[in-house]
Write a structure and sequence with these properties.
Layout: E1 4-11, E2 15-17, H1 30-39, H2 46-49, E3 62-68, H3 69-77, E4 88-92, E5 103-106, H4 112-121, E6 126-131, H5 133-138, E7 143-151, E8 159-160, E9 172-178, E10 184-189
Parallel strand pairs: 1-6, 1-7, 3-4, 3-6, 4-5
Antiparallel strand pairs: 2-8, 7-10, 9-10
């Protein structure tokens, strides 16, 4: 069975974007960039794959990406309707639909957790939850692994890692890797239940 992996950059105070969706304060350079490009090259948007030398690099961990509307909108702002053409793409939105045949828009009447459970039963590589604090909160019971690129920055307000009701959900720490950039990649997994 495939896993749902929430792989995302996050600030020290738990935000994945600023109040207006800003993410430009998250660095992507040096040994951190090298590690991301080596381990998860498919997480680079299609329009950046050529400039990064990834045109012929196969997907390593993910072949499917799920995101909320807020995560999808920055691509739309620059006229990109299929940001991850090299993967199967699903956008959860109550307002957007049918903007690109390469993207499946999942309407507001669909239960995100049930939808992802169905995706997990299909053959393929793992599923990348690339963003959406509200979507992440709705999918918390389906998230098998958290991979957090923890940036040494505090922003005070913005889009939280999980934007939902109070609901303690344990994850077990698996590994921490520190980079010269000051970013740490911290991996957590859902505890195994008997």
């Amino acid at each position: 069975m495939r896993n749902l992996i929430y792989l995302v950059a996050v600030t020290l105070d738990g935000f994945i974007a600023g109040p207006e969706g800003q993410t430009d304060f998250f660095g992507f350079e040096g040994d951190l960039a090298a590690a991301i490009l080596a381990e998860w090259p498919e997480t680079m948007p299609t329009h950046l794959r050529g400039p990064l030398g990834l045109e012929d690099v196969a997907n390593r961990r993910f072949d499917t990406v799920v995101m909320g509307r807020g995560t999808y909108e920055p691509a739309l702002a620059v006229d990109i309707t299929s940001p991850y053409r090299h993967m199967e793409q699903f956008v959860f939105s109550r307002t957007l639909a049918d903007l690109d045949p390469a993207v499946t828009f999942v309407g507001g009447d669909t239960d995100p957790a049930a939808f992802v459970r169905d995706l997990k039963r299909r053959d393929g590589l793992d599923i990348w939850l690339c963003g959406g604090g509200r979507l992440a909160a709705q999918l918390v019971d389906e998230i098998d692994e958290l991979i957090l690129k923890v940036n040494p920055t505090v922003i005070g307000a913005g889009v939280p890692l999980f934007a939902g009701p109070f609901r303690p959900t344990p994850f077990q720490p698996v590994s921490t890797r520190a980079f010269d950039t000051g970013v740490s990649i911290v991996t957590y997994r859902r505890p195994v239940t008997a």
